[in-house]
Amino acid sequence: MIDDKKVLFSGMQATGTLTIGNYLGALKNWLTLSEEYECFYSVVDLHSITVRQDPAELRKRARALLTLYIAAGLDPKKNCIYYQSHVSAHAELAWILNCFTYMGELNRMTQFKDKSAKHADNINAGLFTYPVLMAADILLYQADVVPVGIDQMQHLELTRDVAQRFNAIYGDVFTVPEPYIGKVGAKIMSLQDPAKKMSKSDENPNASVYLMDDPDTIMRKFKRAVTDSEACVRYCDEQPGIRNLIDIYSASTGKKPEEVEREFEGKGYGDFKLAVGEAVVDVLRPVQERFAELEKDKAYIDSIIKENAEKAGYYAQKTLRKVQKKVGFPEKIR
Ligand code: TYM
Description:
Bound molecules: ligand 1
Helix content: 40-55%
Strand order of the largest sheet: 1-2-3
Number of domains: 2
Structural class: mainly alpha
Strand content: 5-15%
């Protein structure tokens, strides 16, 4: 608790360009929850280097992502928006938690398996212990809730297990966090292969709609989206492409899937795809406009980066000091 408010932590990687999956699955829920909770939203650049990055490009993307959090509507005076690498306690707690996490647990992580298959020439130890750093992010702020898409659930379960294990040995040190998964949009699929999740790193640019895509590109991508030959807009497992488009439309408009089915009864896929494209364009337009303005205000963004790193650092140090004492590190002599 901070000032009688429960705490929320979440983060995103600045690798690749954000997709509407990231927006509808996570960022949109961050906005809904930001009034109710004391929020920490991190640009997790330590996680990004588990895959080889171009340094200048990573710096540029990290800044764009931080700016985008604000452009999406998060007030940086109320929400702590910061770079993970500016708070060294993340790496320090991750080391300690590494000693409380089992190899067997990490071996079971499906994202590790997927990423090692994709980057077979660089299966580094950081990629393996990635979920432990994620646990450190969350536990440092004593977060009660963590809004994420479905793909992060396994990492959250591990975080809970590690927190409970640590608490069982040393007493109630960590708050055990609950995941928050939105009702719609928690797993947006690729527009070209509805069996695969929409991803920042997909090589096919038509598979993902990016947050910064212009309206023509968005409309074109939806027009080309893979569907089926059933020719009716129905929310079911047999029509995964259409179901995904209904999810995107529902998450963008707030309409329930049943309402969407009714709205497009008797209409063809052409009409439906057009409506989905327009709904997404409408959601993204204000975000893109604010982003363009904020990007120009270098001094403002710099001040947010500085202030919020200090705020995050303050809370992170509180937990880190407690943990260091519990595990037996000697106190600093001041
Ligand atoms: P990342 O950067 O891959 O994704 C950011 C958020 O977007 C969600 N997401 C999706 N939701 C719905 N449909 C999709 N197709 C889709 N793709 C991505 C993700 O679930 C996530 O919520 N490891 C994390 C970042 C992280 C983190 C944390 C998150 C680091 N530390 C602590 C929460 C708490 C990641 O790589 O997310």
